[in-house]
Amino acid sequence: MSGLVSGIKKVFRKVGDFVKKIGPVAIIAGVAFLTGGFGLVAGAGAGTAATGAAAGGGGLFGSVGSWVSNLFGGGAAAGATGAATAATGATAATGTGLGGFLSNLGSNAMIGSAVQGAAQGYFTGQAQEAEEQSRIDEENRLKASYEGAGEAMMFGSSSPMTGKTGLGAPARNGSAPMARGPAETARMASSASAAAPAAMAQPTAPMANPAGRPAVRPASEQPRRPRVRYDRESQAIVYS
Amino acid sequence: MAGLGMAMQQPMAPAAAPAPGPAAPMAAAPQPEMSMGTEAASPEEQEMYDKFVSMSFLALYDKKMMPKTLDMLRAPGGAIEDKVGQVVAGITQRVYDSAKESGVELPGDVVMNAVIEIVEAVVELAEKSKVAEFDQAMIDKSYYAAMDLIGQQAAAQGLYGDDMKAQDAAALQQMSQSGELQAMTGDVSAQTDEMATAPPPAAPAGM
């Protein structure tokens, strides 16, 4: 699974239309964090969150040191606290899966202290063994529950509900699926509607397009992810 | 709806932005807009992305699956961001494995962008279910948690080793030094400067 960084450059059209979104700097930070290059990008390389903020041109995150601290949940205080040493970060991380990351960070001498501190503020909160065990348990439970959904999720496999190959993607709102003809679009929508909850099954046949290009449906007829709401009386999730 | 590059051009969603109601009219999705330093995903990549996200949605919104997911999000103890991360990582792993079993090797950049959207979906589900309200910092942290777990899974499977990390880190550094990252974030720096001077958000429960 190479090429995470190239993903920062790539522009994908989204399938959903969510109101709340992950912040752009956070996306870069997350990837930088994952690759172990956070400090290299942070560039501030010195001192506390305040120093990092003052550094300005030190790097993308150097100018926003205290904000990055907030981003990781530690706040400015954690940023300052975590300004300590790389070894601190490595120590704090011991024994937790999440913290493995921090160990890597801690071993990177170039990491800006503000960033390290911010990260520490976040990750040390996860260092409890009990929480780790809970996470593993939940993961196992989730994994087990996925077994039932198995076939319907298979890439390119025959769907037990449609007998068709692959579920494909519902066309996104108002946009034409790329490199798909109307028949393909209809098949995929049909497949998706069979597999998804009733509320998800809103697709209709695409409008005819004499040019043979992918059909564009009226927005009101677009297949899309289901809307769900919380019913206070029944205290349950209701599809709508 | 645009992908990562588009998101980079958009102001961050306000923490208290109301979600559209079920009957909210659906606006036509804009085509992806390019900013400096970004490039459109190829049709093949977009196709993989579509499949990945759609299958993840099928899993997330599955009638049998959703109650279990909500149970997981509602489980006592721990930060909600980590629970979102666990849900997303679980879904991602499952769909990734499924693709691999079918002979489809998903590139990391496709997975990474898909994770962004899946996190947003789980956050919305959690909010609609009254499990938690997310401010911007919580959403971002949910993404970190998801990426962290997925990274661990990938590393454990030998899919994202130290050599790859080193390559990516070097590429990232080059992008930073050349100003490419800054260009991609557009005027985000100004926003973040404002945020830097604003009071920090309240610490979420469990932190």
Largest sheet of chain A: 2 strands, antiparallel
Structural class from helices and strands of chain A? mainly alpha
- Alpha-beta content class of chain B: mainly alpha
Radius of gyration of chain B: 18 Å
> Which spans of chain B of ≥5 residues are poorly predicted at pLDDT below 50?
1-31, 187-198, 200-207
Verbal overview:
The complex is a heterodimer of chains A (240) and B (207). With 240 residues, chain A is mainly alpha-helical. Chain A is 44% helix and 4% strand. Chain A contains eleven helices and three strands; from the N terminus they run H-E-H-H-H-H-H-H-H-H-H-H-E-E. Chain A has helices at 6-9, 24-35, 38-42, 49-55, 65-71, 75-81, 86-93, 97-106, 113-123, 129-149, 182-195, and strands at 10-11, 228-231, 236-239. In chain A, helix 5 (65-71) crosses helix 6, helix 7 packs parallel to helix 9 and helix 8 (97-106) packs antiparallel against helix 9 (113-123). Chain A is elongated. The two termini of chain A are 37 Å apart. Residues 43-130, 146-153 and 156-219 of chain A have low confidence and may be disordered. Chain B is 63% helix and 1% strand. Chain B has helices at residues 4-9, 43-60, 65-74, 80-101, 108-128, 136-156, 162-177, 180-185, 188-197; one strand at residues 39-40. Chain B is an all-alpha fold and 207 residues long. The interface between A and B is large, with 112 and 144 residues.
Offer a concise description of the structure.
With 240 residues, chain A is mainly alpha-helical. Chain A has helices spanning 6-9, 24-35, 38-42, 49-55, 65-71, 75-81, 86-93, 97-106, 113-123, 129-149, 182-195; strands spanning 10-11, 228-231, 236-239. Chain A has eleven helices and three strands, in the order αβααααααααααββ.
Feature tags:
heterodimer; A: 240 residues; mainly alpha; two-stranded antiparallel ribbon; 11 helices; B: 207 residues; 9 helices; 63% helix; 1% strand; disordered N terminus
